[in-house]
Design brief:
There is one protein chain. With 327 residues, the chain is mainly α. It has a single domain, classed as Orthogonal Bundle (Tetracycline Repressor, domain 2), CATH 1.10.357.140. Helix content is 61%, strand content 1%. It is built from 14 helices and two strands. A two-stranded antiparallel ribbon has the order 1-2. It is globular, with a radius of gyration of 20 Å. The N and C termini lie far apart (62 Å).
Length: 327
């Protein structure tokens, strides 16, 4: 028998590790941890590049081989781990308060399957939040403040009586701000100055993208969401119109990348990213329009949702402020 690899594989296939250990992975959803991992590393490196620390590196024949003008590895690992564990904590918390909905939409998850109780998952989420805050405090006050602000958004999104998840459009925005805008600014703050417009510009591109593309996760969840009063775009407008409303947000990142380059916030090299994002966004938008409501055979949600996440990670490109505007 093949091992349990994908979230939708039956639990009987989890034969090489204890079922509860394997279920812990599904509770924190590893695939969704890639954006804070990749975005965190990229954001921190962009901040280093903006202050010239990378260009000033010296190469040595002895360890650590590459020497920068300031310590990098420890604060980088500490800060990025805080962002990754924060995302894991919010994933677990969301499943605690989505339990009844998941019984309908995603019965293969650890809580509906009975592998973890709601109380156990809540404790796991609490410990993950605690670990994230601890690592963030080690990095510095600004980074900790941003991590705390992101955490507040995740709580407001999932936990009653706030439960922003249930509110039309506000649900999408409450994901876009912490995971798009604040996430990249937080990673930048590990080494850089948050008053620099570059991280805010990059974050705004990612947030704008997420306002519409977040709908990809809702298209296969209409039954449970409607049953429990979650007013997503597909529930309120229907799947076809929800897809139509979301399509422009797959192309806006390229336009804003070109605009920020024109204004001199991004360097000229960002033009390449802006040009690449046009056909890439169009391809994902086409996939969304064609089969956005088709459940993926192995992963959660639809294939369009998975490609949405990949494109989100592709929007983070190491860069620094342009020297002059194009205009």
């Amino acid at each position: 028998m093949c091992p349990k690899i994908y979230p939708k594989d039956p639990w009987e296939k989890a034969e090489y590790v204890p079922v509860r250990v394997r279920a812990l992975l599904d509770l924190v959803r590893p695939f969704t941890l890639l954006p804070p991992l990749i975005g965190g590393i990229a954001g921190a490196l962009m901040a280093l590049a903006s202050e010239g620390s990378i260009e000033g590196a010296s190469v040595s024949a002895s360890y650590p081989f590459i020497q920068l003008s300031r310590p990098v590895l420890y604060p980088l690992l500490t800060g990025v781990s805080a962002l990754v564990f924060l995302n894991a904590a919010s994933n677990a918390l969301n499943q605690v308060y989505d339990l009844e909905i998941d019984r309908v939409n995603k019965p293969y998850r650890p809580l509906p399957s009975g592998i973890y109780t709601r109380e156990e998952a809540l404790w796991i989420s609490f410990l993950l939040y605690l670990f994230s805050f601890w690592r963030a405090a080690v990095v510095g006050a600004v980074f900790f403040s941003l991590v705390l602000l992101i955490a507040i958004f995740t709580v407001l999104y999932s936990v009653p009586p706030f439960r922003l998840k249930k509110r039309l459009w506000i649900s999408n925005i409450s994901i876009a701000i912490p995971r798009g805008l604040l996430g990249i600014v937080a990673s930048w703050s590990i080494f850089g100055d948050v008053t620099d417009p570059v991280p805010w510009a990059i974050g705004s591109v990612m947030a704008l993208y997420l306002v519409g593309s977040t709908t990809t996760k809702d298209l296969t969840d209409v039954e449970g969401d409607r049953l429990y009063g979650v007013r997503t775009l597909p529930v309120v407008y229907g799947k076809k119109r929800a897809i139509t409303l979301s399509l422009p947000f797959f192309l806006l990142p390229s336009l804003f990348t070109l605009l920020y380059t024109w204004e001199g916030i991004f360097p000229l090299e960002a033009l390449y990213l802006g040009v690449v994002l046009i056909p890439w966004g169009a391809a994902v938008a086409y996939l969304l329009a064609r089969e956005g409501d088709r459940p993926d055979e192995h992963f959660e949600n639809s294939p369009a949702w998975r490609h949405m996440y990949i494109m989100l990670m592709g929007q983070v490109s190491p860069t620094r402020r342009g020297e002059r505007p194009l205009r």
